Amino acid sequence: MKIVVCIKQVPDTTDVKIDPVTNTLVREGVPSIPNPYDMHALEMALQIKDKYGADVIAVSMGPPQAIDVLKKAVSLGADEAILLTDRVFAGADTWATSYALAGAIAKLNPDLVMCGKQAIDGDTAQVGPGIATRLGLTQLTYVVNFKNVDVEKKEIVVERKLEEGPETVAARLPALLTVLKEANEIRYASLPNLIKSVKLEPQVWDNKVLGLDPDLLGLKGSPTQVVKIFSPPLREGGKLISASEEEIVKIVDQLMPQIRSEASCAI
Amino acid sequence: MKLEDKLFLDRYVVDNIPHLKIKDPSVCTMCVKKQCLYTCPAQVYKEEEGKIVVSYEGCVECGTCRIICSENLEWKYPRGGFGISYKFG
Amino acid sequence: MIENKFDAIVVGAGPAGTSAALVMAQSGLNVALVERGDFPGSKNVMGGQIYSKSLNEIVPEFWKEAPLERVVAEKRFWFLSKDSKVSVAHKTPKFAQPPYNSCTVLRAKFDKWFVGKAIEKGAFYIPETLVEDVIRDNKGRIIGVKTGRAEGELYAPVVVAADGVNSLLSKAAGFHPELSPENVALAVKEIIAMPRNRIQDLFDLEGEQGCTIEIAGEITKGMVGVGFIYTNKTTLSVGVGCILSDWVNYKMSPYDLIEEMKNHPVVKPLLEGGQIREYLAHLIPEGGYNAMPLLVSDGFLVAGDAGMMVNGLHQEGSNLAMTSGKMAAETIIEAHKKGDFSARCLSLYKRKLDESYVIKDLKKYRNSYAYLEGNRQLLTTYPEIINNAATEFLTVDGVPKWEKQKKIFRSTLKKRNLWGLIKDAYSAWRAFG
Amino acid sequence: MPSNLDDYRGVCVFIEQARDKIASVAFELLGEGRKLADKLQVPLSGILLGDNNIRALAGDVIAHGADIVYLIDDPQLKDYTTSAYLAGSLQIVNRYKPEILLLGATTMGRDLGGALATRLATGLTADCTGLDIEEGSRNLKQTRPAFGGNIMATIMTKRHRPQMSTVRPRVMRALVPDPSRQGKVIEEKMPAFDMTARVIDFICQVKTDAPLEDAEIIVSGGKGVGGAKNFAILKELADVLGGVVGGSRKAADAGWVPVSSQVGQTGKTVRPKIYFACGISGAIQHLVGMQTSDVIVAINTDKEAPIFKVATYSIVGDLLQVVPMFTRIFKKRLGTPE
């Protein structure tokens, strides 16, 4: 079995702020980390590998520094690593990103592709479905658990977590899974794997390798454009309210529109 | 700015395994000086209802508490890769 | 090649460890540099100066590429009373020219660069890994380390403990006693962001030049310690450190004291409009020569803070760390040539240190802290005396100057008698001179 | 390859339904869609996919503001699967070419949206909290939080159609339904497609075990609750509102709530619509885990409690009195039987 795990390098978003003067992102001193959701996808891939045996290939698209997330993946047990890096990939929105990633994954021809539910910088949850759609993979989002993987029968059974409760789905392989954080606990790398990751020199693929249409890549190939960024309104503490019936009634009235009148599944 | 707000500026990679542990809480109850409460620069130790509560997540790993309370404290560094991660230093 | 065998293992990627690894790697040794932090520098704190001389010997002309903040062209010393200061400053073009004297740095950036240099020279950097103990052979010689990871043993005929002030490794190895509160200082520090031109104006700086201010007196409330303000490119490093036993005995909280210092009427205007970016705390080994642990045993060397190599009085530490790291490396290179890693052979390290400024300076100031602790009037009464004297002397109020001098002398004697003054002067000269 | 923009006209909402029940986000989108459609002077339509009783729901869609309902009734649409719903909605969008297409930012909407936008070769903006039409052009301005809520971004899809957004639930307002509203229902046939997945089991767990991270309403208690027994008061409020109970680290350490319900740096990070912080002082470890909640109602006896610095409503008082008061008044408003 061959499993591709897509891992994005993201800024540790808790630290990203907007400079009020220049209105640009302040990223000084903001460390880059592997997208946490992707690490849970990797962990699930490794658990599938532990149970059924598999080759796990970590793929990341980004600048050359993105090698760090691939090292992380190898330190945890990924077998191979591929870095997609090329100037024409830069500035891509989710549509153009999934185009590039799908191009790379197509060359690998895996049984399973694993992604995090979303990346913590963009929070879009669109790249996974984009890849699945482009490659004709069965799309399984919001996965918390795998129950069975059968490469012979080309079938996978997973549990997805929906708003109303868990759903078990049987699907045809090849498939693409997007994984939630609560799926698992990420393992702690062993020293031999860590040493292996330090020595890692990933395969580097640029668009000469992929041979994709440059007009559909990067900023140029992105249908969406960010036209403005701004700071969210500051959260300010409300003034102190006394605990009288009258005050509470006022608050309830203001909260009412936020509350669902019914909270149940229609069955 | 209050200490809590300052600590909020710091970056931590929080380990879910606590690296600070009081060996015998009853020793703390009897401790007269309770130096840990005021010398810890990150106010990791707080007293609540006579008990010392350890908020290891905010620890800056300086070692102060270990030196002033070597007998009743199990002091380790967080696992490699976890804990405080200074952005400026 | 067996993956976990090296010619040497260095524990801790601070100035001492990185220097050791770099120098060894440069001479062709297969050296592992093990760091527990998220990235090099992520755990490391200092006031913020590196000294050129020692670094230049390891990375020649480092200033051409290192991520430095500012070149320290001026050193200022402040003696504060409750609301006043007497300031002494030294500025010289020598400080502002290569190879410079010292530079301010931010460790998260600097250490990343420095480790990068060691890697460039061939050191094998193992990140995010905590070394927990040493491994010994059946004769008790140290032959490797155990890390906090699965299958986590690393082997080498010699291990350098450069794991900082707490040095849990040399404690685990059993020849570093627990630090005593008298022998360490606890320092807290803030990184305060400020626009570059405002820093230029407030501190009267030219171009890339910077200054350091060491502050004694009122701000430490009588505790043995010092405050500091260092200028970086677009931030200030502001902090205060005092001997840990003083924090304990004076029942002072570091986070309160730094706030008070920042609100001192003389300090406050310099920080106006700044934004706190980070809050840090760290111990500094201030025990000096008298508190130094054993530095050498079979297959084991201790360098930098782990070996108490800090000259607290002169705010030096990173240079002693780098020099000791380099000397440890040179010793190991020799040991490799001989194939002998016994304590006897490795004691070359101790001899090198003894002959260098490292031990000479530490010896010179061996009694300075004990002296300060026994003579707290130097930290409280004197700043007050000199501030009062300055105010009196510089006030233009029609009183003849000779009368002013008499008045100053009289009020000084009220605070400390003549014999006390003479004794202070003599003993201070003995301790610091 | 930019699409021929002028061919596209109208605002369309994907009507999310599961087990013959329309999700409330669909009504909210119809409310917002109506505003956009009126501004553009175009019709508002809905895409309704399902089987069996789906036709019965069309009227409700119109009552909530739609002019047209495109409907496919097919047994293959009984459960949501990406392949079936993608095939159905693709057929409708390609045929009727709306210029704006809105979906809920729910598991279903985000699953379908990503696939649909890829096939339509158009832009999709996720998890929007604000929509507007740009003055002078007909472009949709889509505003959304990014970087964990630290920044807001406005995004446009200028050269492709339809302009697609998923919209965060409970941000937009639904219209008061008007049963007398008139509209058209257009039925489509399900196209042929390859069914690659099937749902084999589903367990409804809304009431019992909504996970904390996804809960829309959380009633959380801290040290001030005073004991495990008093958490019953919090549970009662949570039940009335269809929310779940959480706790601070102190409450979890004391065993008053399970560790899995702990909110904060070592616990879970939550972003509910409403967060009740009852007897929680607001240590930084806790604030990190809940400060991006949309509304924070804090109840504490201590006026100086740090939680009040982030609270939308800062109520100084005894939670043992205030929480039951909330429960009683909400019950009255919601018409919950006593």
Précis, in short:
The complex is a heterotetramer of chains A (267), B (89), C (433) and D (338). With 267 residues, chain A is an alpha/beta fold. Chain A is built from seven helices and 15 strands.
CATH topology of the largest domain in chain D, by name, is: Rossmann fold
CATH class wording of the largest domain in chain C: Alpha Beta
- Average pLDDT over all residues of chain C: 93
| Number of separate helices of chain C | 16
Strand content of chain D: 25-35%
Q: Structural class of the secondary structure composition of chain C?
A: alpha/beta
Write the CATH architecture name of the largest domain in chain C: 3-Layer(bba) Sandwich
Pick out the low-confidence regions of chain C: none
Assess the beta-strand content of chain C as a share of residues.
15-25%
The major sheet of chain D is characterized as: 7 strands, parallel
What is the tally of helical segments of chain D?
A: 9
Distance between the termini of chain C: 55 Å
Domains of chain D (count)? 2
Quantity of strands of chain D, as a count: 18
| Helix/strand order of chain D, N-terminal first | EEEHEHEHEHEEEEEEEHEHEHEHEEH
Within CATH, the superfamily of the largest domain in chain C carries the name FAD/NAD(P)-binding domain
Secondary-structure blueprint:
The complex is a heterotetramer of chains A (267), B (89), C (433) and D (338).
Chain A: E1 2-6, E2 9-11, E3 17-18, E4 25-26, E5 32-34, H1 36-52, E6 55-61, H2 67-76, E7 80-84, H3 94-108, E8 112-116, H4 127-135, E9 138-150, E10 155-162, E11 165-172, E12 175-179, H5 191-199, E13 203-205, H6 207-210, E14 225-230, E15 240-242, H7 245-255
Helix pairs in contact in A: 2-5, 3-4
Chain B: H1 3-9, E1 12-13, E2 20-22, H2 25-30, H3 36-39, E3 45-48, E4 51-54, H4 64-68, E5 73-75, E6 83-84
Antiparallel strand pairs in B: 1-6, 2-5, 3-4
Chain D: E1 11-15, E2 17-18, E3 21-22, H1 24-40, E4 44-50, H2 55-63, E5 68-73, H3 82-96, E6 100-104, H4 107-120, E7 124-128, E8 130-133, E9 140-146, E10 151-156, E11 163-167, E12 184-188, E13 197-202, H5 206-209, E14 217-221, H6 231-241, E15 244-247, H7 249-253, E16 274-278, H8 284-290, E17 295-300, E18 313-316, H9 319-334
Parallel strand pairs in D: 1-4, 1-6, 4-5, 5-12, 6-11, 7-11, 14-15, 14-16, 16-17, 17-18
Antiparallel strand pairs in D: 2-3, 8-9, 9-10
Helix pairs in contact in D: 3-4, 6-9
Pfam families (chain B): Fer4_ETF_QO (PF05187)
GO molecular function, one term (chain B): iron ion binding
Protein name (chain B): Ferredoxin-like protein
Write up what this structure looks like.
- The complex is a heterotetramer of chains A (267), B (89), C (433) and D (338).
- In chain B, the strands form three sheets. Chain B has a two-stranded antiparallel sheet with strand order 1-6. Chain B has a two-stranded antiparallel sheet with strand order 2-5. A two-stranded antiparallel sheet of chain B has the order 3-4.
- Chain B is built from four helices and six strands; from the N terminus they run H-E-E-H-H-E-E-H-E-E.
- In chain B, strand 3 and strand 4 (51-54) form a beta hairpin.
- Chain B starts with a helix and ends in a 5-residue tail after the last strand.
- Chain B has a single domain, classed as Alpha-Beta Plaits, CATH 3.30.70.
- Chain B has 89 residues and is α+β, with helices and mostly antiparallel strands.
- Chain B has helices at 3-9, 25-30, 36-39, 64-68, and strands at residues 12-13, 20-22, 45-48, 51-54, 73-75, 83-84.
- With 433 residues, chain C is α/β, with parallel strands linked by helices.
- Helices cover 36% and strands 24% of the residues of chain C.
- In chain C, the strands form three sheets. In chain C, strands 3, 4, 5, 6, 12, 13, 14, 15 and 16 form a nine-stranded mixed β-sheet that branches. Chain C has a six-stranded mixed β-sheet with strand order 7-2-1-11-18-17.
- The mean pLDDT of chain C is 93.
- Chain D has 338 residues and is α/β, with parallel strands linked by helices.
- Chain D folds into two domains: 5-187, HUPs (Rossmann fold); 212-334, TPP-binding domain (Rossmann fold), CATH 3.40.50.
- The radius of gyration of chain D is 22 Å and the shape is elongated.
- Chains in contact: A-B, A-C, A-D, B-C, B-D.
- The interface between B and C is large, with 37 and 51 residues.
- Strand 11 (165-172) of chain A pairs antiparallel with strand 13 of chain D.
- Chain C: Keywords: FAD, Flavoprotein, Oxidoreductase.
